[in-house]
From TrEMBL, chain A:
Highest taxon of the lineage: Bacteria
UniProt organism field: Cryobacterium breve
Designated name of the protein: DUF4395 family protein
Keyword Glycoprotein tagged: no
Tagged with keyword Oxidoreductase: no
UniProtKB/TrEMBL annotation, chain B:
InterPro entries xrefs: Thioredoxin-like_sf (IPR036249), Thioredoxin_domain (IPR013766)
Domain called Thioredoxin: residue spans: 53-131
UniProt name for this protein: Thioredoxin family protein
Pfam family, one: Thioredoxin
Source taxon at top rank: Bacteria
UniProt region (Disordered), positions on chain: 141-162
């Protein structure tokens, strides 16, 4: 019964106003998350061993990288370019492409967490640099290893709490 | 903290994250049967769909624009519905419908409801469903082959046997 299979994904007017991002190979964001997870472990290690300034600096660099992904899109992120240039040519073509919006939103979540860590670190609360890095590490690790996008799930909870996704016209 | 202690903390953190990931993975795509007495009967209007439900069964998928696994599930369920007469697939975008997300208690996407021909909710799946599980449930709803009844441990009981 082919005609019954439909999608309600037709863009509504307020969605149409947002620019659509080009689809990406789903393995790209996971590759980036793996690099991020390793760097976050370094932050935690530096923080634990008392190298507070180094930990804070590296987390600040990661925050900038998250911001890059969140605002320019994961496709234009340095890791995304690295993936496209060096990794993807060695892999089989992906089974399917994925919309860049979910991983881009997840980059925003990473930005939020790391900026809080950096801010608390600048206020002299050095342990929070490690704690923020730890939380971000868990998210990045789950994304890289288990293909679980915490930021994407968070989005739905925010929609439910009516923080996001409000339609100007009552649906 | 000395470097050795710090390394131990890192190992512990990786272990915790791995356990979280394994728990998550084991819970994905599990079917939960909805008991007869708490099963609600839905109409297309209830899920904001303008498309009629199937005469035999309907797969109602909840998605959002920010869901990385929804397109794959959409393709799978469309394919299944296309191959079975009387089975419809309806994909409901919750991105701008917080009311529906609350009403159906959707905490993750994709979440899929399996409805019988009358619109009664029979089962609910959190996460991407597996093809074999969906087919087994559809066999079950279509009825006549008791040999196809689900026997897997995560499908306790068969309250809808006909």
């Amino acid at each position: 019964m082919p005609s019954d299979s439909v999608s309600n994904h037709a863009p509504t007017p307020n969605q149409a106003a947002q620019p659509r991002r080009a689809p990406v190979d789903p393995r790209g964001p996971r590759f980036s998350a793996a690099i991020t997870a390793v760097l976050l472990l370094v932050v935690i290690f530096l923080s634990l061993t008392g190298a507070s300034v180094a930990a804070l600096s590296l987390l600040a660099v990661l925050a900038v990288l998250f911001a890059w992904g969140a605002f320019a899109g994961v496709g234009r992120h340095p890791y995304g370019l690295l993936f496209k240039r060096f990794v993807r040519p060695r892999l089989a073509p992906p089974a399917e492409l994925e919309d860049a919006t979910p991983p881009t939103f997840a980059q925003g979540v990473g930005l939020f967490v790391s900026v809080i860590g950096v801010a608390l670190g600048l206020f002299g609360l050095a342990p929070f640099v490690g704690i923020a890095a730890g939380l971000a590490f868990i998210a990045a690790f789950l994304n890289a290893v288990f293909d679980y996008c915490l930021g994407c799930q968070l989005y739905l909870l925010l929609v439910r709490a009516r923080v996001l996704g409000r339609s100007p016209a009552a649906a | 903290m000395n470097p050795f202690g710090a390394a131990l903390v890192l190992v512990a953190l990786v272990a915790v994250a791995t356990v979280l990931g394994l728990v998550y993975r084991s819970r994905q795509g599990l079917f939960r049967d909805v008991a007869d007495d708490e099963a609600t009967v839905l109409t297309p209007a209830d899920v904001g769909s303008q498309v009629p439900f199937g005469a035999a069964a309907t797969l109602v998928q909840f998605s959002t624009e920010f869901c990385s696994r929804c397109p794959g599930t959409h393709r799978l369920l469309t394919q299944i519905a296309d191959g079975r007469p009387g089975v419809a697939h309806v994909d409901v975008d919750l991105t701008h419908r917080a009311d529906l997300a609350s009403r159906f208690g959707v905490l993750q996407t994709p979440t899929t409801l399996i409805l019988d021909g009358a619109g009664r909710v029979h089962a609910r799946v959190g996460g991407p469903p597996h093809r074999a599980d969906v087919l087994r449930h559809l066999d079950h709803l279509a009825g006549p082959e008791p040999a196809n009844f689900p026997t897997a441990s995560h499908l306790p009981g068969s309250p809808h046997a006909q």
